[in-house]
């Protein structure tokens, strides 16, 4: 099982060698789960030597454009390609209606046969907050987190805890610094991929490097940082982290027993 990012940048990245933070989980059999599908996804996939046909399923963590902006492209290329099966789309059950009505419907509803819906483009697999799914024989559980919290306004994002052969792997998705919530997951994880803003100000949307730097040394020692803006980066290794992930950097998660495979795409 392999895990890698096709882009590690923040939403507004313009770097020539980086894209928005979307990732791939790849099984030994070559099936690929696309984790988030942002506006840059088709170009990021191309830069990684991949295309629409190389994606076997999609997981969406939340509804910002750098995580769902590429779904129109992905859905249309599936719908208008003959003999192409709809991709399984895993998403928290509370986001399904908003994904269609607030993010995709205006551009995708009118089709060659009349009015369509999300199920015309994807095999939608809604998940409860305490649920999960299996991909390539590997179990992925949802990790509900705060992304934005301003007064009564709340936006959640749903990270993933992957039950990998090497040990648990935590992918936070976009989230605020919330060690009181995440510490049990930090402790349980063998490896951590964490949202990290390195801008001059803490913006109240992402965990900031200055805050993450205060985490216990044993937590930082298993933490890789991603979703950073363009420009110079701090010396993460000197501060006790594994480092900043680069696009295409491959992480081997170990071999899954042969009874896994794409047939395990179910809950």
Automatic annotation (TrEMBL):
One of its GO terms (molecular function) is metal ion binding. Residues 20-227 form the Metallo-beta-lactamase domain. Coiled coil: none annotated. InterPro entries: Metallo-B-lactamas (IPR001279), RibonucZ/Hydroxyglut_hydro (IPR036866). PANTHER family: ZINC PHOSPHODIESTERASE ELAC PROTEIN 1. This is Metallo-beta-lactamase domain-containing protein. It comes from Roseospira goensis.
